[in-house]
Amino acid sequence: MTWQLAKGVSGCETKTFFNEGCRARAVATPARHASSFLLDDTVYVITSELTIRPEGFFAPLLPYAGANVNAVRRTGQNQNTCYKRPMRLHDYAPRPAHIKWLLDSDPAIRWQVMRDITGEAPNAIAAERSRVATEGWGAQLLTRQSPAGNWGGSPRGWRGDLPKEDRGLLITLYSLVVSMDLGLDPSSKEARKMIDRVDKRLVFKRLNNRPYLHGETEPCINGRILGIGAYFKKPNDALANQLLGEQLEDGGWNCEAPKSRRSSFHTTICVLEGLLEYERAVRKSAAVTKARKRAENYLLERRMFGSLRTGEVINKRWLRFSFPTFWHYDVLRGLDYLRNAGIKPDSRVSDAIETVIERRHQNGRWPLNLLHPEHIPLEMETGIGRASRWNTLRALRVLHWYNNSTW
Q1: Is residue 78 in some structural domain?
Q2: Domain membership flag for residue 10
Q3: Which H or E run contains 17?
Q4: Which in 27, 45, 49, 301 has the greatest CB count within 10 A?
Q5: How far is it, in rounded angstroms, from Cα 149 to Cα 362?
């Protein structure tokens, strides 16, 4: 079986590909998920009336190409379409094959795809989300919590600079954050049992047995604890006020303050995520909203990765995407926060969006670019360079957010 494609160059040209596919920069197959793709730096459009594309969730891949952008026709028919304009980086829509691949995974990914990509009914999303507590990664992480409330020991040699107790509390912090990232329903009996153990049994001994959910001294950790408490238990006003008082003049936060008066992207994103969860758990607070706005502008003024003075990339690792992120900042994490917070994108995120697009593999999926050395007692995606469902999900919803905004 062959298919005919129109080539977007100065004139119309037809190419015929066999169903084995073209192994240059894209693969064209006779499946029901055709649209446009790049081949030899040229836009090709596969055409057939049989194409099915999820409507209403993403802008067309080539919005200027007209309604036939996803029309498919078998060879032998003499109706070809030519598009002369180059593909813009942010004109991207997932094919049904990508969505099928994402859905063929863990409940933690499936329910977020249903919410953020395919727009399923709320009851269907809730039903899938409820499985996080009893199946797959969520269930595995829950079963590995000890009766004492923590998540056990650390690998040999990991953070040998810290006392054993502090290593255990860090792993607990990371495990709780990942539970949030998985979307564990805080109203489930499994989540309530988990957070009750933490609330009643974990303390910071070096801080006169301060309860774990009351936080400690560093804003990068307290931002996460604030979010965990607001998400799973109850918002902590005192901890939120403490963080507001530690905001630096440039708008962000830094765990090295007051020694350092310059904000850190890493600390700032951890605090921002915590304040967002806190605001969602309480009524809107003018002080918290103002603090978040200042911190968001701290990221945006630096175009999500650059020096305010030179514009140069501060850390090239921020252009490589991982999951879990733990305490580390990267461009995708920053953009996903803005999307989650309902921030309207503007030109200050355009370079970061281009970075996300450039990280996409030719098969339309995003790879796992790196793994951070932090530890939780759960393995999800571990193949560096291999296609990552977590990164693909997050990249697609960020592009959806960007493409569906007007500015």
Answers
A1: no
A2: yes
A3: strand 12-18
A4: 45
A5: 44
41: left (phi over 0), alpha (psi -120 to 50) or beta: left
Residue 43: which H helix or E strand, with range? strand 42-46
The pair of structure tokens assigned to 9 is: 């160059």
Which tokens in the block code for residue 144? 């590995």
Supply angle C-alpha 217, 220, 221, rounded to 5.
60
Contacts of 372 (CB under 8 A, 6+ apart): 322, 324, 325, 326, 328
pLDDT (tens digit, 9 = 90+) per residue, 208-262? 999 999 999 999 999 999 999 999 999 999 999 999 999 999 999 999 999 999 9
Residue 52 covered by a domain: yes
pTM for this entry: 0.79
HSE at residue 124, side-chain half, CA atoms within 13 A, is: 10
Nearest to 228 by CA among 245, 211, 244: 211
Is 25 a domain residue? yes
Nearest to 6 by CA among 76, 79, 59: 79
How many folded domains does the chain comprise? 1
Residue 36 bridge partners (DSSP): 45
| CB of 182 closer than 8 Å to CB of 137 | yes
**DSSP single-letter state for residue 164:** H
pLDDT per residue over 167-181, tens digit each? 999 999 999 999 999
Nearest 10 degrees: Cα torsion 189, 194, 198, 201: 90
